TrEMBL record, chain A:
Keyword Membrane: yes
Stretches of the chain forming a coiled coil according to its record: none
One Pfam family linked to the record: ABC2_membrane_6
InterPro entries: ABC-2_transporter-like
Transmembrane segments: 33-55, 126-145, 151-178, 198-223, 243-263
Protein name: ABC transporter permease
Keywords: Membrane, Transmembrane, Transmembrane helix
TrEMBL record, chain B:
Gene3D superfamilies for this protein: P-loop containing nucleotide triphosphate hydrolases
SMART domains: AAA (SM00382)
PROSITE patterns: ABC_TRANSPORTER_2
The species this protein was found in: Mangrovactinospora gilvigrisea
Single GO molecular function: ATP binding
Protein name: Methionine ABC transporter ATP-binding protein
Occurrences of domain ABC transporter (ranges): 8-261
InterPro entries in alphabetical order: AAA+_ATPase, ABC_transporter-like_ATP-bd, ABC_transporter_ATP-binding, P-loop_NTPase
One Gene Ontology biological process: response to antibiotic
Membrane topology of the entry: Peripheral membrane protein
Lineage: Bacteria, Bacillati, Actinomycetota, Actinomycetes, Kitasatosporales
Pfam family membership, one: ABC_tran
Localisation: Cell membrane
Signal peptide: none
């Protein structure tokens, strides 16, 4: 019998190969690249300008000054960008399922999720990242934070954890698309909207029912609000125990492990398309 | 010598698709979301067949017969509801990636190449993704470039290729990792005659020289007649026929056609032979031609011809074998009449 030509390739190498191909494909459209980046930065700038306008009118929001609000906003936005850069293809999940496009990932000896995420890419989240990091850097000196090495590490853990919390919710719901065919309205119009609209404010300004919902039902508080309280020495004002706020960055990895398992579990229900 | 184990074994394969029953009336959409009532459809309903290594089989059936569903189960895309499948010793949906290493798949309707990159980049990327040794991969690319005539467009982005070029690129991509089994789902759909011929020649070469096992799904029966010795014909999720092309014709269209061109002024007096009958005249038939139908099992061709020549002045004679197209058409039509 003839020798087999193909040999197993480590998953991380396949990931990088496909990521590279996705970016090379995207870089073919240079004009679009520049415009999308500018658009991304402007879009986030508008969001921050709105918060600034509110603060300029009322002096503070829920007892938080401009520097603190900008810091919270920057953490949330950076975390958001950090997951949407590698996971931006989740946007096309429904379409890919409905059109049977997953067929092509299932016939290759490489991870299905790896192939799906890197089939193509979108550079708009890079605009978010530039906006988020810009706000974060500016706010870091304006907000009353003592920047010890521990605080810097905690901030990095917060961003990673917050990114994973948002990512897990989206990935988990995407898993349902294999059965339900469409979850876009739930993912984007509902969850992503709540995250984007409420994520930049201290939760103390909301009624207690909503605060509870945004902490324990849709864990928005864990993305930026709880850890920001820790860094800003405001844990005394929280309605949850300070240790829970301290541990907030740990929720991300736990949720992500569950969402990843769930997504692959649901892949069994993929129905392909008629042809 | 013991007979080698078949490379593909399918037993009692069934696949049922279920979807929630759509509820009409007020709040129908929301009630549909929570309903426990389902509509189910058996796309594949108890299929058995085996394929030996090196075979080239045509997997045929009308639209909705269950062809694509079977292929998708064999390639590891779908999980069956029932039955067992083994492809080169692997259960496809249980060890998807291991199965993927043994197979190449080409979908006529859907490219697997990287849309925005030049064809060459896709081909090279596949080598790295499958872990094919560099020199071996380079030699394969060179060989396929020649066999499929890729040189003229290998540096063009895939989105700019014509359908025929893209199809050739897809075939090369599927075969570069040297899979033992190649699944082709309508590889010639929408292609012109020249492109079709080129692709058929490539498939025949792979099968002959490399011993690649090929499962070909198509509606183009020319593909089948030129490439396949064996056919598996399915409809309604069941196997209708599994065997050689010749036997299929013998069973469903046993009669040959003898077309006689009479000399000018000659009159047709008929042939009195058992098993020979006059065919109804065709619309575009030339004046003075007569067609006879006969079964070579009961009336030998030579005897029928002799009988015609004994009584008539004839300028031309030809025997027409039944075409697969007509045979398959007849089978589908018969099924519809029953159903």
């Amino acid at each position: 019998m003839a020798t087999v030509a193909s040999n197993p390739v480590p998953a991380h190498r396949q990931y990088l190969l496909l990521l590279h191909a996705a970016w090379r494909g995207q870089l073919q459209y240079r004009g679009n690249l520049v415009l999308t980046l500018i658009g991304g930065v402007l879009y986030q700038g508008v969001g921050l300008a709105f918060v600034w306008a509110v603060v300029a009118k009322f002096g503070h929001v829920g007892g938080w000054g401009m520097g603190e609000l900008a810091f919270l906003y920057g953490v949330r936005l950076t975390a958001h960008a950090a997951w949407t850069i590698p996971f931006n293809r989740l946007n096309s999940m429904d379409w890919m399922v409905q059109r049977g496009e997953f067929d092509r990932y299932l016939i290759r000896p490489a991870g299905t999720l790896t192939q799906f995420l890197n089939w193509s890419t979108n550079i708009q989240p890079l605009g978010d990242l530039i906006g988020g990091v810009g706000v974060l850097v500016a706010a870091s000196s304006a907000a009353p934070i003592d920047w010890s090495p521990t605080a810097v590490l905690y901030l990095l853990a917060t961003i990673a954890g917050g990114a994973l919390v948002e990512c897990s919710l989206q990935l988990g719901l995407c898993g349902l698309s294999f059965r339900l065919q469409a979850t876009y309205a739930l993912r984007m119009n509902f969850i992503d909207n709540i995250m984007n609209n409420f994520g930049g404010y201290p939760l103390t300004i909301f009624p207690s029912v909503m605060r509870f919902a945004l902490t324990f039902l849709l864990p928005l508080a864990f993305v930026a609000y709880l850890p920001a309280n820790v860094l800003l020495h405001r844990t005394g004002e929280l309605s949850v125990a300070p240790w829970l706020a301290w541990c907030a960055p740990l929720l991300g990895p736990l949720l992500f492990a569950a969402a990843y398992k769930f997504w692959y579990g649901q892949l069994k229900h993929y129905k392909s398309s008629g042809t | 010598m013991p007979t080698p184990k078949p490379i593909i074994q399918v037993e009692g394969l069934a696949k049922e698709f279920r979807r929630p029953k759509r509820i009409e009336g007020p709040f129908g959409g929301i009630r549909t979301l929570f309903t426990r009532q389902y509509v189910s459809k058996l796309a594949v309903d108890g299929i058995d067949f085996t394929v030996d290594e090196g075979e080239l089989i045509g997997y045929l059936g009308p639209n909705g017969a269950g062809k694509s569903t079977t292929i998708k189960i064999l390639t590891g895309i779908l999980q069956p509801t029932q039955g067992s499948v083994e492809v080169a010793g692997v259960v496809p949906w249980k060890e998807r990636e291991r199965n993927a290493r043994n197979i190449g798949v080409v979908f006529g309707q859907r490219t697997q190449l990287w849309w925005d990159l030049p064809l060459r980049d896709s081909l090279e990327l596949i080598g790295k993704l499958y872990g094919v040794e560099r020199d071996r991969h380079r030699a394969n690319i060179e060989r396929f470039t020649e066999l499929l005539g890729l040189a003229a467009f290998i540096d063009t982005p895939v989105r700019q290729l014509s359908l025929g070029q893209r199809m050739r690129g897809d075939l090369a991509a599927a075969m570069l990792p040297e899979p033992r089994i190649l699944y082709l789902d309508e590889p010639t759909i929408g292609l012109d005659v020249v492109a079709k011929e080129r692709i058929r020649a490539f498939i025949a070469t792979l099968n002959k020289d490399e011993g690649t096992t090929v499962i070909l799904t198509t509606h183009d029966l020319d593909d089948v007649e030129k490439l396949c010795r064996r056919i598996v014909l399915i409809d309604g999720g069941k196997v209708l026929y599994d065997g050689s092309v010749e036997k299929l014709k013998a069973r469903y269209a046993p009669r040959r056609r003898l077309v006689v061109q009479l000399a000018e002024g000659a009159r047709w007096r008929g042939v009195a032979m058992p098993g020979v009958e006059e065919a109804p005249p065709e619309e575009d038939a030339e004046p003075g031609t007569v067609a006879l139908l006969f079964d070579p099992e009961t009336a030998a061709s030579a005897e029928v011809i002799a009988a015609v020549l004994a009584d008539h002045q004839v300028t031309d004679l030809s025997i027409v074998e039944p075409e697969l197209e007509g045979v398959v058409h007849r089978i589908y039509a018969a099924r519809e009449a029953v159903a």
